[in-house]
């Protein structure tokens, strides 16, 4: 599950999205937490949307990983 929140500001008098915060709640098989963490750490570099908006919008990514 992902919770995504945008921040709208008007830095030059025009409303625009300036920040996007993403928080991921992941359940992964036992022993796979490290692999999930590695993938999340490089996610933004491989995300077409993040790369398109890079420099225009500030992204933050947080997560909670639970093994089952």
Q: Strand sequence of the main sheet, in spatial order?
A: 1-2-3
Mean pLDDT rating: 95
Poorly predicted parts: none
Please work out how many helical segments DSSP would assign: 2
Number of strands: 3
Oligomer: single chain
Helix content: 25-40%
Largest sheet: 3 strands, mixed
Principal-axis shape: elongated
Helices and strands: which structural class?
Answer: alpha+beta
Computed CA radius of gyration, to the nearest angstrom? 15 Å
Order of helices and strands: EEHHE
Portion in strands: over 45%
Spatial separation of the terminal alpha carbons: 15 Å
Description:
The chain is α+β, with helices and mostly antiparallel strands and 68 residues long. 29% of the residues lie in helices and 46% in strands. The protein has helices at 33-46, 48-53; strands spanning 2-9, 16-28, 58-67. Strands 1-2-3 form a three-stranded mixed beta sheet, covered by helices on one side.
Keywords:
alpha+beta, 2 helices, 68 residues, elongated, three-stranded mixed beta sheet
List the helices and strands and how they pair.
Blueprint: E1 2-9, E2 16-28, H1 33-46, H2 48-53, E3 58-67
Parallel strand pairs: 2-3
Antiparallel strand pairs: 1-2
Concise summary:
The chain is an alpha+beta fold and 68 residues long. The protein is built from two helices and three strands.
